[in-house]
Design goal:
This protein has 480 residues and is of the alpha/beta class. It has helices at 13-23, 36-42, 54-61, 72-78, 104-116, 133-143, 164-169, 182-195, 209-240, 244-252, 273-286, 290-317, 345-355, 369-377, 406-410, 430-435, 452-458, 471-474, and strands at residues 3-7, 28-32, 66-69, 81-84, 121-125, 150-154, 174-178, 204-208, 326-330, 359-363, 400-402, 415-418, 442-445, 461-464. A six-stranded parallel beta sheet has the order 3-2-1-4-5-6, sandwiched between helices.
Length: 480
């Protein structure tokens, strides 16, 4: 029986291994992590992450050929294929701070693999890593090999949170990069055989190591670039009276461009986009390509600009002050159908409003109060470091209350901001909400999900990103 072990039981490792176990009943899959709390959660009825369909997959396989354990060394030493899915946070100090990936956890995982291995292994990079990481890992393993042969493969994940299980069941492509040696090609075929249980062969792409590593960064950079492009257009639409939804629909009809990732919003979030682009910027700078680095930096600049533009619009619309005013925040996760708050635009928007002394009442169907308070009191990139390095009991932000109902959040509020596109926010009883809000009542739709005309008929003053401005807002221009 082939044995697979995955180091790291997070958003990538957990779902990926659960689907491999489901689709390959003849393979034994172990997911290991040093966090006792996380492994306990994976073994319970309350999984540590929310992802539609994940529950069912885990329950079908757990205890049969899918195991979650803190006995890292045992499972690594027994495995034929070891996936490494550990954090690669952005460095917060030292060389490359704020841009370069911190490979501390990767290096310690590689050293541990070398220490405990008693048989040949295929080591698979599953986390997003900078180009040439495989070379560093290879050096650590070969210099500590004790006669054991290691092959390093790059197998980046292309999951979108909220649809991860569906993405794993029917991937656009599976990318496997390896050395162009006979041993490297044999390792590629071994991993390809795992995916071939359910993925059509023409969707399994095999490349050299560096192409696979760079493809992941490039894919995320291109996706983020599309969002920043349409968000840049949204600012121009507001200034000219155009409607960004109509513009992006017209642009997306061009088959060379296509309609995906052209929805204007308050900005992109998630654990990958910003981090991967910063990483790309750093690699470009290190390779003497400052113009290319500057190009990709601009994608992040536009994203930051969009968030600050939104905050400025809220403040300027409400008589240039939100001090002491209650503002309802609907949605805190970075997108619908996930409880993930990493790099969510809601953090910067909330912090901007708090700086202006607003009182916030936050509701998100999947994010709890502890997480929200932690996010609002943490340093930038702090979320990406292990939990034991994060503040244990974050100083709660006094101007923030977290509630479990949209109507409670909006009661007596002067304005409400929609920051996540949860389906339930489309169908709220906005007349009921309007009746219980302070007047004039403002709606700031950061996701373009409400019917602007209907809300204006109810009596709301509505700001919807990239849409023609309410006459009220034209008189109160936002200065970004």
């Amino acid at each position: 029986m082939v044995k697979i072990c995955c180091i790291g039981a997070g958003y990538v490792g957990g779902p990926t291994m659960a689907v491999i176990a489901l689709k390959c009943p003849s393979i034994e899959v172990a997911v290991v992590d040093i966090s006792v709390a996380r492994i306990t959660a994976w073994n319970s009825d309350q999984l540590p992450i929310y992802e539609p369909g994940l529950d069912e997959v885990v329950k079908q396989c757990r205890g049969k050929n899918l195991f979650f354990s803190t006995d890292v060394e045992k499972h690594v030493s027994e495995a034929d294929i070891v996936f490494v899915s550990v954090n690669t946070p952005t460095k917060t100090r030292g060389l490359g701070a704020g841009k370069a990936a911190d490979l501390t956890y990767w290096e310690s995982a590689a050293r541990m693999i070398a220490d405990v291995s008693k048989s040949d292994k295929i080591v698979v990079e599953k986390s997003t890593v900078p180009v040439k990481t495989a070379e560093a890992i290879e050096k650590i393993l070969t210099h500590n090999s004790k006669g054991i042969n290691y092959q390093i493969l790059s197998n980046p994940e292309f999951l979108a949170e909220g649809t991860a299980i569906e993405d794993l069941f029917k991937p656009d492509r599976v990318l496997i990069g390896g050395r162009e040696t006979p041993e490297g090609q044999k390792a590629i075929q071994a991993l390809k055989a795992v995916y071939a249980h359910w993925v059509p062969e023409d969707r399994i792409l095999c490349t050299n190591l560096w192409s696979a590593e760079l493809s992941k960064l490039a894919a995320n950079a291109f996706l983020a670039q599309r969002i920043s492009s349409v968000n840049a257009m949204s600012a121009l639409c507001e200034a000219t009276g155009a409607d960004v939804s109509q513009v992006s629909h017209a642009v997306g009809k061009d088959t060379r461009i296509g309609p995906k990732f052209l929805n204007a919003s308050v900005g992109f979030g998630g654990s990958c986009f910003q981090k991967d682009i910063l990483n790309l910027v750093y690699i470009c700078e290190c390779n003497g390509l400052p113009e290319v680095a500057g190009y990709w930096k601009q994608v992040i600049k536009i994203n930051d600009y969009q968030k600050s533009r939104f905050v400025n619009r809220v403040v300027s619309s409400m008589f240039n002050t939100v001090q002491g005013k209650k503002i309802a925040i609907l949605g805190f996760a970075f997108k619908k159908d996930t409880g993930d708050t990493r790099e969510t635009p809601a953090i910067d928007v909330c912090k901007g409003l708090i700086e202006d002394k607003a009182r916030l009442s936050i509701y998100d169907p999947q994010v709890n109060e502890d997480q929200i308070q932690r996010d609002l009191s943490m340093e930038k990139f702090g979320w990406d470091h292990p939990i034991h390095l994060q503040p244990m009991s974050p100083a709660s932000v006094k101007q923030v209350s977290v509630v479990w109902d949209a109507y409670e959040a909006t009661k007596d509020a002067h304005g409400l901001c929609i920051l996540t596109e949860w389906d339930e926010f489309r169908t709220l009883d906005y007349q009921k909400i309007y009746n219980k809000m302070q007047k004039p009542a403002f709606v700031f739709d950061g996701r373009n999900i409400v019917n602007v005309q209907k809300l204006r008929e109810i009596g709301f003053i509505v700001y919807s990103i990239g849409k023609p401005l309410d006459p009220w807002l034209k008189d109160m221009p936002a200065v970004a």
